[in-house]
Amino acid sequence: MKYFINSTADYHRNDLNSLGWELTVCNSMEPLNSPCHQALTIPDSFGKHLYNFLNKIISFDEISSVLEIGGGLGYLMRDFLTLNPQMKAKMIDISPYLLNKQKETLRPLKADFELADILTVPLKYLSGFDLAILNENLGDMPVLIPEQDNDSYQPFADATEKLEHFNKKYNLSLGLNKDECINIGAMEIVEKLCLAGIKYIYLSEHSCEATVPGNIKPYVSFQSSGIPEMISLKGHKEFTVKFSYLQKIAEVLNYITRRGYFADFLPINFTNKVQTALRLTSPLNDEQEVIRQFFHDIYKYEYLILTKGDEK
Ligand SMILES: C[S@@+](CC[C@H](N)C(=O)[O-])C[C@H]1O[C@@H](n2cnc3c(N)ncnc32)[C@H](O)[C@@H]1O
Q1: Does ligand 1 come within 6 angstroms of the Cβ of 71?
Q2: Are 254 and 309 in contact (CB under 8 A)?
Q3: Are 137 and 8 contacting, i.e. CB atoms less than 8 angstroms apart?
Q4: Ligand 1 atom at shortest distance from the alpha carbon of 22
Q5: The pLDDT of residue 149
Q6: How far is the CA of 233 from the centre of ligand 1 (A)?
Q7: Does 150 have pLDDT greater than 70?
Q8: Whole-number Å distance between alpha carbons of 175 and 196
Q9: What are the structural domains of the chain?
Q10: What does the alpha-carbon distance between residue 210 and residue 225 come to, in Å, rounded to a whole number?
Q11: pTM of the model
């Protein structure tokens, strides 16, 4: 099959000058007066909630160097370094605009910065880190698009070779479904981080396999097609991520995996106000709209925590 490629690299390098157009869950929880906090039992920032959750699963005492790829405005790492000042961070980002924002946010803390596309960073460079963090950014990585009628994508010559590699090594069946877009960049990154032997890896993104648990179905509904879905944003297109493939790659490479949705570590508070916002067919004000979007996101976003097998 002939494949085309969706790449966001040019957009991130040259055009991005705000993250306001694609508000991440992390950023939406940042303002102290964010309506998202009304939906939580503990109104902390995203980074604090995530750190406290990871702290129960991984042993932060063993972690001295942490790598964050695609750290956006730097809020998550600000929280990690504040809660654990013994750690030193490396921030790698493809966007000069966002890397500068990270420098401002992390100015008083222990962090280095590098402008780079993670897909081009050599594997050996990654092997010294104890923990790698990729929050809400795997959907930005290159995606293979099966044959198209329009000319909005560039043809991609090496697709067959790459798909054969993943199918053979990880027992996948990429390319069998002629309608399936493939998160090739996300798969290459997971493979690279695992081969680099990083002890702990945390990944998250909107998932094409997420399902809403039964008790939440009266409040939140969305369809997940099981194959990466396109999301059109300002200046670029992203895709939801097929986490089962990433999980399989990590498992073959001897990692123990734990998978779930953001609601696992963002403890929700069903106040009357929150329930009213969720039950309406359409929101009556901005606050209700934010709460509804937040609920949608905390079930649509999945995380994957990878722990190197021989460490436990
Ligand atoms: C949607 S933002 C997420 C930001 C942040 N992690 C958060 O949760 O708010 C995507 C981030 O990934 C970065 N990024 C996208 N493609 C990248 C690549 N190939 N290499 C490194 N960083 C990349 C972007 O510049 C941006 O910082």
Answers
A1: yes
A2: yes
A3: no
A4: 1
A5: 61
A6: 14
A7: no
A8: 27
A9: 3-311 (3.40.50.12710)
A10: 9
A11: 0.95
